[in-house]
Every structure is written in C-alpha cells, then in structure tokens.
Specification:
Layout (H helix, E strand, L loop, with lengths): L15 H4 L4 E2 L5 E5 L9 E2 L6 E2 L4 E4 L8 E2 L4 E10 L5 E9 L7 H10 L9 H11 L11 H8 L5 E6 L8 H8 L1 H15 L4 E6 L3 H10 L5 E6 L8 H9 L14 E4 L1 H13 L5 E7 L7 E6 L4 H7 L9 E4 L6 E3 L12 E5 L17 H5 L6 H9 L3 H6 L11 H5 L6 H12 L6
Helix pairs in contact: 3-4, 3-6, 3-9, 6-9, 12-15
Bound molecules: iron/sulfur cluster (2 copies).
Length: 443
C-alpha cells in the first residue's frame, strides 16, 4: 500500500503532456545570462570582465563564503557585459552576459579534471575528494531549494543514518526529474551510490510517487545489489515536501526549527545525484539541466535539456510557441512556483519547469471573502489553521501567529490557497507574516 499522509490536495496532474516524450537538447542561444546568485547563501562576484574570452565550464562567479556555489559558463564566447538583469525571483541581480561563439571550446581545467577522473573508480573516492569535486562543479539542490551541495554534505558527515532520494515530483505538470530518471537512470543511481559511500550509509531509499510507472518499472529492474530501496508514495500534493518524505521513509518528524540532519536524515534530488555522478566520475561542472516546458498555452509541452543561463523565451519557442494568448508564466510548479513578468529571465540551476497558462488554467480569480468553510484547515499537511494566520497577520499580530498558530511550520506548499473556494491568497499572507517575523532567534 503506497504511503500517504493526512491533509494535502489532488490538483489535476497534467503530467501526461510531457512525461512520455524523450527529452530534446535545446540549442544554445546567441546570448546567455549568468546571475551571480543561483543558490542559497552568499552571491558570487564575477571573476571575468567585459571583453574577456571564456570557455565552457570556466568559473565566471566565485565567493569565498562557506555557503555559496561556483558559477560556470555553459558556452564559450566573449563577456558582452556585466550588469543588473532580471532574475526569476523578481529582483535585479548582477549578471554576466556571454556572447556565444558557437565553438563550445572546453576550459583546460575541465579537460584536466575529466582526464584525472577517469583514473579512479568513482566509488573509491574519499569523502574529501567527493566533496571537493562537487564544490568545483558548483552543484546545488536542483529540486528548487538551491542549497550548495558540498556544504550540505560536509555539514552532516558522520551524522547520517538515513539517505533519501526525493523523486516524488508532486507538483502538477512537472516531469523533469521523471524524464531524467528514465533517460539517465544509471548515472543517477551511481550518483546515489557515491553519496552513500561518502556519507557512510549502507543503503538509501528512493521515494517516488505511484504515478511514475515507467521510472518505477525501470527502477525495479535495476536496484538489485545497489543498496538502494524503492518506496512508492501515493500520488498526492505535497508528498514531495522534505518533511513529508522524511516522515514517509522514517516515520519520524523533523522538529520545528530543526533540519533533517538533526534527526540523522539527508535528502537529495535525483537531478543533483546525476550532477554528482558527472562531477565525480567525469570531472564536469553543472552547466545544464532537464527543464519541463508545459501549460495550456504551450504548443508542444516536453522536456528540454537546457544550458544554464538560457532565457526562458528560447524554451517557449522550442516548444512550439504559444498556442493561446499567455496569461501567466511561472518558473517552478503552479502550486509553489514564481510568477514571471518577462520571458527574458533565465534558466538557473534550480529551474525544473517553465509553465505558461492561458485563460482559466492555473489561475485563481477569487472573491476574496472567507466563508469559514474550514477547507484550508482540512488540507493543510502541517495541521495549521491558514485562515486564522491570515486574519491575525492582517491585524499585525505576528507573534500570535508564531506562538499560537505555529506559522513557522508552514512549508508554503500552497494547498490551502488551492482548496480555498474564495481563492484567498493564503500562502502569500503566510509568507508575509514569516517575513515580518524574520529568522528564528537562537535562545
Ligand atoms: S498553511 Fe502552509 S503548509 Fe498548510 S496548506 Fe497552507 S501553505 Fe501548505
Ligand atoms: S478555505 Fe478559504 S473560505 Fe474556507 S475557511 Fe479557509 S480561508 Fe476561509
């Protein structure tokens, strides 16, 4: 019986539009844009200047802060400019703009690492060697979190007994991890085994929703003798939230204000595992990823393999352009993604999906009146009372929201907003309250 949890919602999946089509490689555009913030932590500073020539895989952004991630060029060419540019977060961020020369000349240091990587079995590396390869590759959590992977692994070394691969991909429309698993399964599995060895655990659990039949069938045939176990989850949103995956696999809860590592767990995304394989076994930096391009206003929904730094306008054109007048563009899923106001924003390391909706799909045009129906409470997977958080938040009673309504436990899944018949912007109100409260104060 697939694992489930109390609360949650069943939005239309809309995954079949892209799930079964093999991915296509998107041609590199003439100009690519590399914001110096693609990760959680300190932004990078450019290591190049206008007019410099750059190679594929060359570091173009660096920070010596402990929590940060290197940024590499995904093409060869010339630095056309360095200036503030639109970022998917809605802010302007310092961005290195590279004019592609279409030669794809690989950086000498990447070729050197590639040759060296071949000399040793990736499963014979020491934890330090693996962490260094991941750091040099600039890998971050590719499921959307963007946390630098080298720092994450180092901070939990010696503390982990449960390694979980989160392949739930529970947001509607998105099939990027599913396609990656189907098309790069051996690489992802070897990446998981590298992680197991590095973290010193004898097994890992790959948790996946029951609607990914093709990947599940393939996994059943390939997992024997790998130490990787399969856990099938019921298809339900937000099954893929880190807290719910951990509860599904271990039966334990991450206490409020604590991290998975505090209860001996580490959770990684399948795309990050494939990137770990690329870094450790081949010496390659993270310069491309699978991205789902879908939604009612997209002519030919599919998955594309995209170079980091590509404007989303290129993905839309490659997927047949608009089939309806576009009303809403989202990076990420319809439940937790970020609305975009320009198609000149870029594919970052964390971008798993670009969705474009026409009228009446993915839209909430509500009456903005709470009728006290309680639906938001019944679907909340964290057992919160979103209507009251909104109410007290509007009155400015943030401490009450924190102490009595446990607003900090909200995982911002958006299930309450989705289910609310008035389509009240509950998750936005909750985010606002959390912002006003600021970070948790250490006692
Ligand atoms: S209150 Fe937070 S955790 Fe609960 S349903 Fe709403 S967004 Fe999700
Ligand atoms: S679901 Fe919407 S209308 Fe119903 S109680 Fe919650 S906020 Fe009010």
């Amino acid at each position: 019986m697939p694992y489930s949890f109390k609360g949650g919602v069943h939005p239309p999946e809309n995954k079949k539009r892209s799930a079964f089509k093999p991915s296509e490689i998107l041609a590199a555009p003439e100009r690519l844009y590399f914001p110096m913030q693609m990760h959680v932590g300190a932004p990078c500073a450019p290591t190049v200047k206008k007019g410099d020539n750059v190679c594929v895989g060359q570091v173009i952004g660096f920070s010596d802060a402990p929590i940060s991630a290197l940024i590499h060029s995904s093409v060869s060419g010339t630095v056309a400019d360095i200036k503030e540019w639109d970022h998917p977060s809605g802010r302007k961020v310092m961005t290195v703009i590279i004019e592609n020369d279409n030669k794809f000349t690989v950086a000498p240091e990447v070729l050197e690492r590639e040759a060296k990587a071949k000399e040793k079995d990736p499963l014979d590396r020491t934890p330090e060697e693996v962490i260094e390869a991941i750091r040099l590759a600039g890998i971050v959590g590719m499921g959307g979190a963007g946390f630098p992977t080298a720092f994450k692994i180092r901070s939990v070394l010696g503390q982990i007994h449960t390694l979980i691969i989160n392949a739930a991909e529970c947001e509607p429309y998105i099939t990027a991890d599913n396609r990656l698993l189907v098309e790069r399964m051996d690489d992802a599995l070897l990446g998981i085994r590298i992680l197991m060895k590095t973290l010193g655990v004898s097994h890992a659990t790959l948790a996946i929703e029951s609607n990914k039949e093709e990947a599940i069938e393939m996994l059943r045939e390939r997992l024997d003798g790998t130490g990787i176990m399969l856990r099938i989850l019921r298809t339900k949103y937000p099954q893929g939230s880190e807290k719910h995956i951990i509860r599904a696999v271990t039966g334990r809860e991450v206490p409020p204000g604590k991290l998975p590592g505090d209860i001996g767990c580490a959770v990684f995304n399948p795309a990050s595992c494939a990137a770990i394989y690329d870094a450790v076994a081949k010496g390659l930096p993270l310069i491309s990823r699978f991205v789902t391009i879908s939604g009612s206003a997209i002519g030919n929904p599919q998955n594309l393999r995209v170079r980091i730094g590509t404007p989303i306008s290129c993905l839309i054109s490659a997927a047949g352009g608009y089939s309806l007048p576009p009303q809403r563009i989202i990076i990420g899923g319809p439940m937790m993604g970020t609305a975009q106001y320009t198609t000149e924003v870029l594919v970052l390391k964390t971008c798993n999906s670009v969705l474009v909706f026409g009228e009446n799909e993915g839209l909430h045009a509500g009456s903005a009146i709470c009728i006290r129906c309680g639906k938001c409470v019944s679907v909340c997977p964290m057992r919160l009372q979103p209507l009251y958080i909104r109410l007290y938040g509007e009155k400015g009673e943030y401490e009450y929201c924190e102490k009595k309504l446990n607003v900090r436990d909200c995982i911002e899944c958006g299930a309450c907003s989705y289910k609310c018949p008035g389509h009240l912007p509950l998750v936005q109100s909750i985010r606002f309250v959390k912002q006003r409260l600021g970070p948790v104060k250490k006692s």
